[in-house]
Amino acid sequence: QGVAAYIAPLWPVDDEIARWMAVGFYRELLHERYSVGESLRRTRVRVWQSLSQSGEAQTMPAKTALTWSSFVLYGDPTSRLLQ
Questions:
Q1: What per-residue confidence (pLDDT) applies to 1?
Q2: Among 40, 49, 58, 60, which residue carries the largest CB count within 10 Å?
């Protein structure tokens, strides 16, 4: 009740990658002041690129390597926390 938007994973996720997602998301949302949807999109891209370029994704189980894609926004992607 009263929640305009929330982000939740579609499946159980890797803790370390989830931490990267949270730190990146809040950096984009609070520091860069992007909308909720754009903050999530930018964070997903950055984490995916980091995993791909480092080669870490090839050594992880697929479900773990795809943690970045598990997070989904439910709500208005254009909403902003800060004006």
A1: 64
A2: 40
Identify which of 66, 81, 78, 79 has the alpha carbon closest to the alpha carbon of residue 27.
81
DSSP annotation of 30: I
| Identity at 45, one-letter amino acid code | V
Residue listed under structure tokens 């609070």: 30
pLDDT reported for residue 82: 74
CA distance 24 to 51: 14
3-29 pLDDT, tens digit each: 888 999 999 999 999 999 999 999 999
- CA torsion angle for 11, 13, 39, 54 (degrees, to 10)? -130
Let me know how long the chain is. Answer: 83
How much is the pTM?
0.88
Q: 6: part of which helix (H) or strand (E)?
A: strand 5-9
Structure tokens given for 64 = 């773990």
